[in-house]
Specification:
The chain is an alpha+beta fold and about 700 residues long. The chain is built from 20 helices and 17 strands. The strands form 5 sheets. The chain has a 5-stranded antiparallel sheet with strand order 2-1-7-6-5. A 5-stranded mixed sheet has the order 12-14-15-17-16. Strand 1 and strand 2 form a beta hairpin. The site of adenosine-5'-diphosphate (ADP) has 22 residues, from helix 17, helix 19 and helix 20.
Length: about 700
C-alpha cells in the first residue's frame, strides 16, 4: 500500500472509530445505567435480608443456650447470666415458664427459697395425722400428749415474759427457773424440741451464759435443719442467727448474710427479706475490715440484682399466661405491651417454655456484630430495627437504603439499612461515577476525532501539495533535460554542418558549450538517480577518513572547472586550527553536496557576487560553509527549502532553473553520515549553508 493511502486510511479510522464509539456509548449507556442501579438496589436489599436472617439465627441460638442453661440443675444466678450474655448478648433477660404455667425464672421475690419451705408450725396436727396406723386409742393419747406439750411450751414462754405493765414486761426469777425446767423437759420430745431449744438458748443469753446459749443453738441447728417454726422460719436459720448474735462478731453476720443470699434457707421470701434487713442493719453498725466491707458491697449488689429480677418478674407476670398458652415448638415472638419490648419464646420438649425479652437496641447491636459484608455497600451504613409500619424515612436526617422484615420470630419488626443524608447516596454515587467515566471516555473520543479530522485534512493538503510539486518536478525535469539536450544537439549540428569552419575559436566555443551542457545533464541525472536510491532506501555510503580541507578544495576546484568559461569569484578561507582536521565521510557525496550549495549560491546569489567558502572549527566539530551575498531566504521558507521538490516562490518568478531536489539531497546525504546542515540567512544580506561534521582525532 502506498504511504499516502495508508495515511489516508489511518486518518479515516481516526475519525470513524471515535464517532462509532460515541454513538455506541450513547446507545448503550442509558440501558446499562438502569441495570447497574437496579443491581445496586438488589445488592442493598440482599444485604438487609442477610443481616435479618443472621439476627434470627442469633435469636434461635440464644434460645438454645438459655434452654440448655435452664436445664442444668443449678439456678441461674447473676454470674451465670453475665457469662451467658457475654457469648449471647440477646440473653440479657431470659425467662422460663414451668410446665404448670408458673414463672420459674425470674423469681418474683428478691430472696426466695430453693424449694418450698416445709411449714412445720402444724407439727402437732401432723403427728396426729399419722395416728390411724397406730390404732385409735394410742392416737388419741399421742394427740393429747402433743397438745399438753404445746400448752406447756406456751406456759413456759409466758413465764419467760413475766407480768407486763405499761412500762414493760418483767419475769420473776422463779418464773425463769420454771420456764427453764419446762424447756429442758420438752427438749426431749421431737415435736416440742426445736422451740424448747430456742427457749433454752434465749434463757441462757438472758443469764449471760453465752457458751451454753451457743450450745443450745448448735443442738437446734444440728437436730432440726429442715424444720421451720409456725411462721415458716427455718430452725437452721434461727440457730445460725442466734449463734451469730451471741458471738456479736461481724464476720458471723456476714457469713449468715452470704448464706441467706446464697439461698441456703428454705423459707418464705418475706421471712428471708426480713432477716436480711435485720442482718443488714447489724452489719451497717458493725466495725468491718476492708475485705469484709468489700464482701458486704458485693452481697448488697447481689441483693439489688435479685430485686431487679423480681421487678422483671412482676413486669412479665401479665404476659405469662398468654405465653404459656400460645407457645409452640417453633420459636415465635410478639410485642409485650407491659414491657414495651419484644418477647420471643418457644416450648421445650419437657413442656416448659423458654423465652427472651429483647428490645430494638439489643437487636441492632447484634445486627451490627453480624458478619455480613454490608459495610462496603454504602458510606456510613447503619442498621436500624423498627416496628412494622413505622417509617424510618420519616426522619429527615436519615436515608433508608433497603428495608426487609424478619421471619415469624420477630414478625412485628423490620430491619433497615440506612445512612445519614449528609453522607453520599450509593445510587447517586454510581450514577456520578459512571457519568464521570462516560464524560472522560467521550472526551477522549472527541479528542481522537479532532486529531483524526486534523490529520485527514492535513494529509489531504500534503497529498495535494506533493502532487503539485511532483507535476512541477516532471515539468521542470523535462525542461531541465530538454534545455541542455537542445543546446547540445544544436551546437553539434552546427559543427556537423561546419557553420564555423575555419573559425577555430568559434568551434572551440561550440565544443565548450556541448561539454558544459552534457555535464549539466550528467549532474541532473546523477541527482535524480541519487534521489531514486534514497527513496528506495538502497543508497550506500563508503565512509573513510578524509581531510576536511582537501574535500573543500576539491569541491571548489571542480566547481571552477565546470564554470571555466566564466568562473565565479570564490574566496576560500581555511582556519589554521582545522587545516589538518579529518572527518569520516563518503568523500564524493560531500563534494557533491558542496557542489550543490555552490551551484545554488551562483544561481540565486547572482553570478557577479563573490562566494565565500570557509572551513572553521566549532569545539570538536568541523564546519564547511558556503556563503553568498544573494537575496537571502525569508525565515518562513528556511525550513521548507530542504523538502523534496520544494522551490521557493521567488525561484519560479526569477526563472532560475532547478528541480527542488538539490537541498533535499544535501540534507539527506549529510545526515545519513552523522552530520548536520545549518542555514543562516537574512533577506537582503545573503545566505550561509553549513555542513557540520564531527572531527576525528
Ligand atoms: P533548486 O535549486 O533546484 O530549486 P534546491 O533544493 O537546491 O532546488 O533549492 C530549493 C530552493 O531553495 C530554491 O528553489 C531556492 O528558492 C532556495 N535556495 C537555495 N539556495 C539558495 C540561496 N543560496 N539563496 C537563496 N535561495 C536559495
Amino acid at each position: 500500500m502506498r504511504p499516502g493511502s495508508r495515511r489516508a486510511l489511518l486518518g479515516l479510522s481516526f475519525v470513524l472509530l471515535p464517532a462509532a464509539g460515541i454513538a455506541y456509548l450513547g446507545a448503550v449507556s442509558y440501558q446499562e445505567d438502569r441495570g447497574i442501579v437496579a443491581a445496586k438496589l438488589d445488592e442493598l436489599f440482599n444485604g438487609a435480608e442477610l443481616v435479618a436472617a443472621q439476627v434470627e439465627e442469633e435469636v434461635d441460638r440464644t434460645l438454645d443456650a438459655v434452654a440448655e442453661r435452664f436445664q442444668r440443675a443449678e439456678p441461674v444466678d447473676e454470674e451465670g447470666l453475665a457469662e451467658l450474655v457475654r457469648s449471647y448478648p440477646l440473653a440479657a433477660r431470659p425467662f422460663l415458664i414451668g410446665r404448670d404455667g408458673g414463672l420459674r425464672y425470674p423469681a418474683a421475690a428478691p430472696l426466695r427459697a430453693p424449694r418450698a419451705a416445709s411449714r412445720d408450725g402444724d407439727r402437732f396436727a401432723r403427728d396426729a395425722g399419722t395416728c390411724p396406723q397406730r390404732g385409735f386409742d394410742s392416737c388419741v393419747q399421742t394427740i393429747r400428749a402433743a397438745r399438753r406439750r404445746e400448752a406447756q411450751l406456751l406456759e413456759a414462754r409466758r413465764r419467760e415474759i413475766g407480768t407486763c405493765s405499761a412500762r414493760g414486761c418483767k419475769p420473776t426469777e422463779r418464773g425463769l427457773a420454771e420456764a427453764r425446767r419446762t424447756y429442758t423437759a420438752l427438749a426431749r420430745y421431737d415435736d416440742s424440741a426445736p422451740e424448747a431449744l430456742v427457749g433454752l438458748a434465749r434463757l441462757m443469753r438472758r443469764a449471760g451464759k453465752n457458751e451454753q446459749a451457743r450450745q443450745e443453738y448448735a443442738a437446734l441447728g444440728r437436730r432440726f435443719p429442715d424444720r421451720s417454726d409456725s411462721e415458716g422460719v427455718p430452725f437452721g436459720l434461727i440457730a445460725d442467727l442466734g449463734s451469730a448474735e451471741v458471738e456479736g462478731d461481724p464476720s458471723g453476720f456476714l457469713a449468715l448474710y452470704r448464706k441467706l443470699l446464697g439461698r441456703r434457707y428454705a423459707a418464705p421470701a418475706a421471712v428471708l427479706a426480713n432477716v436480711a434487713a435485720r442482718l443488714r442493719s447489724r452489719l451497717a453498725a458493725a466495725d468491718l475490715t476492708a475485705s469484709q466491707r468489700a464482701e458486704l458491697a458485693a452481697l448488697d449488689a447481689r441483693l439489688s440484682a435479685a430485686r431487679r429480677e423480681a421487678a422483671f418478674a412482676a413486669a412479665l407476670a401479665p404476659e405469662v399466661d398468654d405465653i404459656a398458652r400460645s407457645a409452640e415448638k417453633q420459636a415465635s415472638g410478639r410485642p409485650a405491651r407491659a414491657l414495651a419490648k419484644t418477647v420471643v419464646y418457644r416450648r421445650e420438649a419437657d413442656g416448659s417454655v423458654v423465652g427472651l425479652v429483647i428490645d430494638r437496641k439489643m437487636l441492632e447491636a447484634v445486627a451490627e456484630r453480624v458478619d455480613a459484608d454490608v459495610r462496603r455497600l454504602a458510606v456510613g451504613v447503619r442498621i436500624v430495627v423498627n416496628r412494622m409500619g413505622h417509617r424510618a424515612s420519616d426522619q429527615p436526617a436519615i436515608r433508608v437504603l433497603a428495608t426487609t422484615g424478619f421471619g415469624p420470630v420477630l414478625p412485628h419488626l423490620t430491619l433497615a439499612l440506612v445512612n445519614d443524608r449528609s453522607l453520599p447516596d450509593p445510587l447517586d454515587e454510581i450514577v456520578r461515577i459512571r457519568g464521570r467515566r462516560h464524560l472522560a471516555i467521550t472526551g477522549g473520543l472527541m479528542v481522537l476525532l479532532l486529531v483524526g479530522l486534523f490529520a485527514t485534512i492535513r494529509g489531504a493538503a500534503r497529498e495535494r501539495e506533493l502532487a503539485r510539486q511532483k507535476s512541477e518536478f516532471v515539468a521542470t525535469v523535462s525542461h531541465e533535460l530538454k534545455t541542455p539536450l537542445t543546446s547540445i544537439r544544436m551546437f553539434a549540428e552546427m559543427l556537423q554542418q561546419q557553420v564555423a569552419a575555419g573559425d577555430h575559436e568559434r568551434e572551440q566555443h561550440y565544443h565548450g558549450i556541448i561539454v558544459k551542457e552534457s555535464e549539466r545533464l550528467g549532474h541532473l541525472i546523477a541527482n535524480l538517480l541519487d534521489y531514486a536510491q534514497i527513496e528506495r532506501g538502497t543508497r550506500r555510503y563508503s565512509q573513510q577518513r578524509v581531510g576536511a580541507a582537501s574535500v573543500l578544495e576539491e569541491a571548489v576546484a571542480t566547481f571552477q572547472r565546470l564554470h571555466e568559461h566564466a568562473p565565479p569569484e570564490i574566496r576560500s578561507q581555511i582556519d589554521d586550527d582545522v587545516a589538518g582536521a579529518e572527518i569520516l565521510v563518503d568523500r564524493e557525496v560531500v563534494i557533491q553536496a558542496l557542489l550543490n550549495l555552490l551551484a545554488n549560491a551562483v544561481k540565486y546569489g547572482g553570478e557577479d557576487q563573490p562566494i565565500e567558502v570557509q572551513l572553521t572549527g566549532r569545539g570538536d566539530r568541523v564546519v564547511l560553509a558556503v556563503r553568498d551575498r544573494g537575496p537571502g531566504i525569508p525565515p518562513g521558507e528556511q525550513e521548507r527549502i530542504f523538502r523534496q521538490f520544494y522551490r521557493a516562490p521567488g525561484a519560479y518568478k526569477s526563472s532560475v532553473e532547478g528541480t527542488g531536489l538539490g537541498l533535499a539531497l544535501v540534507k539527506r546525504h549529510v545526515e545519513a553520515q552523522g552530520g548536520a546542515v545549518e542555514l543562516d540567512s537574512a533577506v537582503g544580506v545573503g545566505s550561509t549553508f553549513s555542513l557540520v561534521f564531527d572531527r576525528i582525532v
